[in-house]
Amino acid sequence: MKHWLFYLQGGFLILLLWGIPVYAQSNGMMDGHVLDQVELSREGKETFLIIRGIISPALLSSINVVQEEDSLRSIISIPNGFFNNVALPPSISFRAGDILESVQFMEDILENATGNFDFQAKLLVTSRQPVLLNFDESRTNSQQITYRVIEKGAAGKVETQREGVQPPLLSETMEGQMREPKRVAPMDDTDKVLLHPVSAMLVFQRPLVLHLSILNASPRKDAAQRLAILMDRHQRRALENRLDMKLDITNISSVQEQMTLHKTKIYFRPNYLTAALALASLIPGEQVVEEMSLERRGRLGLDVEIYVGANFE
Predict the structure, then answer these.
(1) Which fold has domain 206-308?
(2) What contacts 222, CB < 8 A, 6 or more positions away?
(3) Cα–Cα distance measured from residue 117 to residue 27, given in angstroms and rounded to the nearest whole number
(4) What string of pLDDT tens digits covers the 313 residues of the chain?
(5) Fewer CB within 10 Å of terminal CB in the chain, N or C?
(6) What is the C-alpha to C-alpha distance for residues 80 and 63, in angstroms, rounded to an integer?
(7) Cβ neighbours, 10 Å, residue 86
C-alpha cells in the first residue's frame, strides 16, 4: 500500500508542477475568461444573452462574432476563454417561447508557432428567427459578457459585432469553425504535460466539508460501524486538521448486493484524491483507491465512499 501511494502521489505532483507553468507561460499571469453559465434575460421588450463567469475586461476587444447569411446561427469566439466543464454542460436549450433555441459549447486547445498553447472558447448560438447579436458594453463587466439579441428582417444586411469584420456567408464555413477541435500532437516523455487551467483551479479548490459514506462489504456485520467509530472518536480531529475541512459521515450501512470484498475499496470524486489517500492511511490493512465512475458521481452529496473489505480488522 505504501509503495502504491508513493507512486500515485508522485505522479499527481508532477502533473501539477509541469502542467500549470505551461499554461502560465502561454497566457501570462493566468489571464483569461472562465465561463460557467449562459442564460437569456428579458427586460421589457429587449432580450439579452448573458455569459457569466470570471471575465478579464482587458481581453474583451479580441472577442468576435460571425453569423450565417440567414442569421439563424452565430459563433461567438472568445480567445483566452475556458469553459468550466463541471458547471457547464456541452449544450443548453432555451424555452419554446424564447427567440434563441440553443447554445453549443466548443473549446480549442491548439499549439502555436512558438510551441506554447492557445485556448479559445466558442459558442454556437442557434435562433428560431433571424437575429443580430450586438455586444452591450454597458452591461458587460468582470462577471459577465452581455449581447443584445435584436430581431432582424429577412431583407436586412448581415452585420458583425465589430466594424471591418466580414462574416462568413456559407454554411460550410460555419460548420468548419465548429467541427471537433484540433488536438495537440502526442507528447513524448521529454515534453511537459498540459493541465487545463480550469482543472488546475479545481485541483487547488479547498472544499469546506468532506461527505463520507461507509459501506460494509465484509463478512463481519459490524465492520462499517467499527470503522466509523474509529474515525469519529479517535481520528476525526487529526483528519480534519490535516485536510482543513470538516468530516461528515453521511451514511453507514451494508452493500445491497451480497458481495464480499477481500480488500477495502475507496472511491473518490474528482478533486478529493488527497482526502481519499488520507483516509486510506488511517484504515488498517491494504486498500484499493479509485476515482468514482460517472455512475457513482451521480450520487449527490457524496465525496468519498469506503467499502470495508474482509481485510479490515
Answers:
(1) Alpha-Beta Plaits (3.30.70)
(2) 216
(3) 8
(4) 545 544 444 554 444 434 433 333 333 334 688 898 999 999 988 999 999 988 988 889 999 999 888 889 999 999 988 888 777 888 999 999 899 999 999 887 776 777 667 788 999 999 999 999 999 999 999 899 999 999 976 434 444 444 433 433 334 455 555 544 444 444 444 444 455 555 555 544 555 788 899 999 888 888 889 888 888 766 788 888 888 888 888 888 887 666 788 899 999 887 788 888 888 888 888 889 988 887 666 666 788 999 999 888 7
(5) C
(6) 9
(7) 13
**DSSP secondary-structure letter at 187?**
P
Only one residue has cell 421588450, namely: 45
Measured between alpha carbons, how far is 272 from 197 in angstroms, rounded to an integer?
A: 18
Beta strands in 97-169 (DSSP E): 100-111, 117-127, 131-135, 144-151
Residue type, 290: E
Residue 15 CB partners (closer than 8 Å, separation 6+): 193, 195
Report the C-alpha gap between 311 and 40 in whole angstroms: 55
**CA 181 from chain center: how many Å?**
17
For the record, the C-alpha cell of 150 comes out as: 435584436
Q: Where are the domains of the chain?
A: 31-200, 206-308
Whether the model pTM is above 0.90:
no
Altogether, the residues listed in the chain come to a count of 313
Residue whose C-alpha is closest to residue 160's, from 66, 249, 49 = 66
CATH class entry, domain 31-200? mainly beta
Residue ranges of the alpha helices (H) in the chain?
2-27, 171-177, 197-204, 223-229, 236-243, 273-282, 294-297
- Element of type H or E holding 61: none
User: For residues 31 and 119, is the Cβ–Cβ distance under 8 A?
Assistant: no
pLDDT in tens, 141-168: 989 999 999 997 643 444 444 443 343 3
